[in-house]
Write a structure and sequence with these properties.
The chain is mostly helical. 57% of the residues lie in helices and 4% in strands. The chain has a 5-stranded mixed sheet with strand order 2-1-3-5-4, with no helix packed on it.
């Protein structure tokens, strides 16, 4: 395979034999092959464990399989009228309908394709691709909980990849005349991110960081690409005005209707500062000082500022750091390492291959390791399923409502029953619930799941509705009869008589 690609490259260069290929290019091809191989091996090794992301990837796949609108799946506020992740669901629906694959295969596609896309972008920019592998390895060892999010098969990974692309491409925007091809590609990627993901307004953050770095020309180009890309992405949704209104309302509702931070979904809560990564960054800066190569112009770049600003904002919302700061920091670390490798290791040295092989092997072992059952924790998981005769009788009837206060119940049950004819009171974001039901949920959360907080839902229940409660023993709600479907999962319904 490698020789075939090399021979094709030789033909383009007028060479007829492998030995005629220039050594630097030959080494680069070997390193690129090592790089690509380890990325593929990691992704398929992770999926070979039977890994299924435990949150939104499930509902994205189930949504695509069901072919339904969210109004047919969830009990929603009146103003929620469209799908915020239009593009991602269109892609999954297309793959599902054309390939005939099952739900699990669609999960594999989600995880592998997004992880591969995120990791392959640096290959188009780096003369020392091994620098990216080293950066990912450092982050993997230092704080895998955050890095592991690139395996969750969710649309935000596409946005993270766009940040990586921006981090490597922006220096080209400083030159005159403007290189139109990278500018067009950046615009297209931002448009796709807006269509696939829905946090279009967050693209203002990198633009602000370019201004803080005083990169006026590049910042202006990035701002224009962002504006045009976001507008195109909104048009691609088919309802741009409604898309703007709904995403902005969702933003304010998500953060404005709670009393305690623990009532928010985990990724909207503040983070702990990731002090290990702060120490890693300090180590990079100290390493540069020891080498006597301290130069603020090389350090205080838009990507470094984006990482620092995102880290600071992470104390308000963790997602700012994980989605914007982490890819920016990986880019900054990679460029620091590439600069050092260029000076310390000759481009003709075969030691580059040994370095790439060594880093690739350690990276594969560190990520693919099933430490603390991070890749196999879902295997013993049981689902409430219509395919289980014991569960079927106790699941909601036609047109029923599934009352519950745990989003993971929604993810797992919707994934197991994408075509079920009931709706869920709580889906992937509490702020989308009707105001009355959201108030009930917030009270349940405030009282740490107290049974008496479920009473308003019990009073609303119809014969076809069901209440699901996490409890070690039968819930003391006498108005309902109960069935222990799964360990610690109880289903309640009104008595049939």
């Amino acid at each position: 395979m490698i020789e075939t690609h090399i021979r094709k490259l030789n033909i383009l260069n007028g060479s007829k034999d492998l030995k005629d290929i220039p050594k630097p290019r030959y080494l680069l091809i070997l390193i690129v092959c090592i790089y690509t191989a380890v990325i593929l091996l990691i992704s398929f090794k992770v999926m070979s464990y039977g890994f299924i992301p435990f949150d939104d990837a499930m509902r994205h796949v189930a949504k695509a399989v069901s072919g339904k609108n969210w109004t047919e799946i969830l009990v929603l506020r009146p103003e929620i009228k469209m799908d915020s992740h239009t593009g991602w669901h269109k892609i999954l629906e297309f793959i599902y309908q054309t390939s005939g694959c099952d739900k699990d295969s669609l999960i594999v596609f989600s995880v592998v394709s997004l992880f591969f896309f995120f990791c392959m972008i640096p290959l188009f920019f780096l003369k020392r691709p091994e620098a990216w592998l080293i950066s990912v390895l450092i982050y993997s060892v230092a704080h895998f909980e955050t890095l592991g999010r690139i395996f969750f098969g969710r649309p935000y990974i596409f946005t993270m990849a766009v940040v990586v692309f921006l981090g490597f491409v922006w220096p080209r925007f400083k030159s005159k005349p403007l290189p139109w091809r990278p500018a067009i590609i950046l615009t297209v990627l931002i448009a796709l991110s807006t269509w696939i993901h829905c946090l279009w307004y967050m693209f203002a953050l990198p633009v602000v960081c370019f201004l803080l770095a005083r990169e006026w020309r590049a910042g202006f180009v990035v701002a224009i690409c962002t504006l045009v890309g976001v507008l195109i992405g909104m048009m691609m949704t088919g309802s741009p005005i409604q898309f703007i209104e709904q995403t902005l309302r969702h933003f304010f509702h998500s953060f404005g209707e709670h009393t305690l931070s623990r009532q928010l979904v985990p990724e909207f809560r503040p983070f702990d500062g990731e002090m290990i990564m702060v120490m890693v960054v300090m180590g990079f800066l100290g390493w540069r000082a020891i080498r006597k190569e301290w130069n603020l112009n090389n350090i205080i770049t838009p990507m470094f500022i984006l990482a620092v600003v995102s880290w600071a904002l992470g104390f308000l919302v963790a997602r700012v750091w994980t989605d914007w700061g982490v890819p920016a920091l990986l880019v900054w670390m990679t460029l620091e390492l590439e600069e050092y490798l260029k000076r310390s290791m000759d481009s003709l040295s075969f030691n580059r291959v040994w370095l790439a092989v060594s880093v690739a092997c350690v990276l594969f072992l560190s990520i693919s390791s099933d430490y603390n059952s991070r890749w196999t924790q879902n295997i013993p998981m049981e689902y409430l399923s219509l395919d289980n005769p014991k569960h079927k009788e106790w699941l909601p009837g036609k047109g029923g409502i599934f009352y519950h206060s745990n989003m993971f119940i929604f993810y797992q049950t919707f994934y197991a029953n994408p075509n079920a004819n009931w709706r869920y009171i709580l889906g992937f974001e509490p702020s989308m619930m009707p105001q009355e039901d959201l108030a009930i949920l917030r009270n349940i959360q405030f009282l740490n799941g107290s049974i008496r907080a479920y009473e308003p839902w019990v009073k609303k229940m119809r014969p076809e509705d069901r209440l699901v409660v996490n409890s070690m023993s039968i819930p003391p709600i006498k108005e309902l009869e109960w069935y222990n479907a799964i360990q610690y999962i109880w289903i309640g319904r009104l008595p049939k008589n």
